[in-house]
Structure formats: C-alpha cells, structure tokens
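User: I've been trying to design a sequence by hand for this structure and keep getting stuck. Would you show me what you'd pick, starting by listing the structure so we're on the same page?

Assistant: Good idea, let's start from the same input. This is the structure you sent:
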C-alpha cells in the first residue's frame, strides 16, 4: 500500500532546490532531485501531482519559476542555397579575435545535444536569463 504524501514539506524542499541553482531548472530535473532524496516516489502520478502543485503556486508567485521549453516543433536550419547557409553561419557564429596585431582569426564554439543544455550553457556564457 502506498503512503499518502505530505506535500507542504515536499514543496518547501522543491522551492529550496530550485533556488539553489544558478541556472533555470526544469520540472523534470526537480522531480528527479526529489526522487533521489527519497521524498517522493518515481511515478507518473507523483510527477503530475508535483507539476499541478508547483504550477498553481507559480501562478500566484508563491514558487520560483521553472524553465519550460514549451511544446514546439524543432526544425533544422535551412537556407535557399549552400552559399546562403555559409554566409548565415559566418554572420551568426564567426567572430574575430579583436586582439591587436593578430595574424589569424579564431573560431570558438560550444556544442550541446539537448535544448536544456543549450539554454543552461547560454546562461552560463552570457550571464543572461534562459529564453
């Protein structure tokens, strides 16, 4: 038989977890942190309950914001031609090292597989908010 959860201390711990990060946290990350601390069971029912409770509190500004990528269709970038793609890539990603007296330009890139990772790295690299 499953034990009924006492949500107030769980929600308090959840808020502390979110506030402990310097980057935005997703609901899924929060859920698994709570599971790893053995405060909640790893079940779809509990995930949905956590989602509903934190959403209700966020609507009243009583819980820290969570990062939500939303449900959108991801589409690979595309261009009218290969030349247009190269030009766009250079404009978007290529920056010259502005050091005086340089004989070579440099290219720096950070690659990430998942949207969450890209968003979190953007915050770390720019000091800005996750979009």
């Amino acid at each position: 038989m499953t034990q009924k959860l006492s949500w107030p201390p769980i929600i308090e711990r959840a808020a502390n977890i979110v506030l402990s990060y310097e980057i935005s946290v997703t609901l899924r990350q929060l859920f698994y942190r709570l599971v790893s601390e053995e405060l909640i069971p790893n079940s779809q029912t509990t995930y949905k309950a956590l989602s509903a409770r934190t959403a209700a509190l966020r609507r009243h500004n009583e819980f820290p914001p969570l990062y939500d990528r939303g449900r959108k269709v991801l589409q690979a970038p595309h261009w009218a031609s290969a030349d247009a793609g190269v030009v766009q890539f250079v404009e978007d990603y290529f920056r010259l090292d502005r050091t005086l007296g340089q004989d070579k330009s440099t290219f720096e890139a950070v690659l990430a597989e998942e949207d969450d990772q890209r968003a979190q790295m953007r915050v770390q690299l720019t000091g800005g908010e996750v979009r």
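That's my pick for every position. To get oriented when you compare it with your attempt: The CA atoms of residues 69 and 115 lie 8 Å apart. Residues 7-59 form one domain.
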